[in-house]
C-alpha cells in the first residue's frame, strides 16, 4: 500500500518500554500505519527481553485503543536464538543481519532465517551492503559498503526475504562529520532489479527532501524507513539529560518527569509521519 501511495511507513524504535506508549499515541493521532521495532543490541543495551518489549507493545495497543495498523518488528539481529525468542513473544517480522559476512555466507544465513520466519508465519528482512553507524547502538561497525544492484537481485531471489535493507548513503546514529547523501541512482537500480520492499535504515538526521525523494522515485523507492536516534534525543533533551539510561532507570522516573519525555517523543514521531514519511491519514488504506 505504501509503494502504491508513494509514502513510507515509519519503523520507530522506542528503545525503552515506557516510550512505546508515546509512539503508538502519535501514530493513532496521525492516523498512520506504524511499525514498532527494537534491535538485538538495543535489547542488550537497555536491559530488555523480547518478551518484555512485546508484552508492553500489546498491552499499549489495548490500553490506548489503537485502531491504526501497528506491527512489531525485530531489527538488526545476529543470533537465531533471539529471533526464535522474538517470534515466540509475538513479533510479526524479524531482521537477520549477516551483512558483515561474505556474500555467499550472507545468502546462506539470511535464507535460513527467512525460511524459519516463514515457517512461523512471520516476515523476514535482511541486509545487503553495510550501513555504517556513529553510535554503535543498533550495529557495531562503522564500515559502510554500498549495496550492489546486481548482487541485490541474486540475494533476494536466493534468500526469499520479504524486504531488503539497502546501503545507499545513510548511517545509524547522529551525523557529526559526514553528511547523509543518498545515492538515488543506485537506489533506482536496486528497485529495478528487485521486487521486494526496500528499507532505508538510518533515517534520523536525514533531510526531509532526501527521504521524500527516496520514497517517491518514479518506479518506486523505499517503503519502510527506520528511525531510532531522533526519538531518544528528543526524550533526553526534554528530560535535561545527555547520557542514555537503562530501561529500569527510565521506569524509575516520577510520572510527571516521564510524561514530559513521552510528550517530546510523541511530537517527534508526529513530525516524522507528517513531514518526512507522508503516511499521515493513510491508515484507511489498510481497511479492506
TrEMBL record:
Its cofactor is Zn(2+). Binds 2 Zn(2+) ions per subunit. One is catalytic and the other provides a structural contribution. It holds the Pfam family F_bP_aldolase. This is Class II fructose-bisphosphate aldolase. Zn(2+) 1 binds at residues 76, 172, 201. One of its GO terms (biological process) is carbohydrate metabolic process. The keyword Ubl conjugation does not apply. The active site is at residue 75. It comes from the Bacteria. Keywords: Metal-binding, Zinc. Zn(2+) 2 binds at residues 97, 127. Dihydroxyacetone phosphate binds at residues 173, 202-204, 226-229. One of its GO terms (molecular function) is zinc ion binding. The keyword Zinc applies.
Amino acid at each position: 500500500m505504501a509503494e502504491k501511495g508513494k509514502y513510507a511507513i515509519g519503523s520507530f524504535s522506542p528503545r525503552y518500554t515506557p516510550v512505546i506508549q508515546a509512539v503508538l499515541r502519535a501514530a493513532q493521532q496521525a492516523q498512520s500505519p506504524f511499525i514498532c521495532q527494537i534491535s538485538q543490541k538495543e535489547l542488550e543495551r537497555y536491559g530488555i527481553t523480547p518478551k518484555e518489549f512485546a508484552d508492553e507493545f500489546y498491552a499499549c495497543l489495548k490500553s490506548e485503543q489503537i485502531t491504526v495498523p501497528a506491527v512489531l518488528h525485530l531489527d538488526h539481529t545476529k543470533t537465531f536464538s533471539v529471533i526464535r525468542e522474538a517470534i515466540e513473544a509475538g513479533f510479526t517480522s524479524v531482521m537477520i543481519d549477516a551483512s558483515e559476512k561474505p556474500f555467499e555466507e550472507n545468502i546462506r544465513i539470511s535464507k535460513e532465517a527467512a525460511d524459519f520466519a516463514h515457517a512461523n508465519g512471520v516476515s523476514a528482512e535482511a541486509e545487503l551492503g553495510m550501513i555504517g553507524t556513529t553510535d554503535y547502538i543498533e550495529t557495531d561497525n562503522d564500515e559502510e559498503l554500498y549495496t550492489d544492484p546486481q548482487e541485490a537481485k541474486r540475494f533476494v531471489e536466493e534468500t526469499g526475504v520479504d524486504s531488503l535493507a539497502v546501503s545507499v548513503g545513510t548511517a545509524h546514529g547522529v551525523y557529526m562529520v559526514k553528511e547523509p547523501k543518498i545515492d538515488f541512482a543506485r537506489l533506482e537500480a536496486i528497485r529495478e532489479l528487485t521486487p521486494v520492499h526496500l528499507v532505508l535504515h538510518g533515517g534520523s538526521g536525514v533531510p526531509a527532501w532526501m527521504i521524500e525523494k527516496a520514497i517517491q522515485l518514479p518506479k518506486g523507492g523505499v517503503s519502510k524507513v527506520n528511525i531510532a536516534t531522533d526519538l531518544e534525543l528528543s526524550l533526553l533533551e526534554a528530560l535535561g539529560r545527555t547520557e542514555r539510561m537503562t530501561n529500569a532507570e527510565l521506569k524509575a522516573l516520577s510520572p510527571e518527569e516521564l510524561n514530559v519525555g513521552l510528550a517530546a517523543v510523541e511530537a517527534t514521531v508526529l513530525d516524522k509521519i507528517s513531514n518526512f514519511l507522508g503516511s499521515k491519514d493513510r491508515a484507511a488504506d489498510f481497511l479492506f
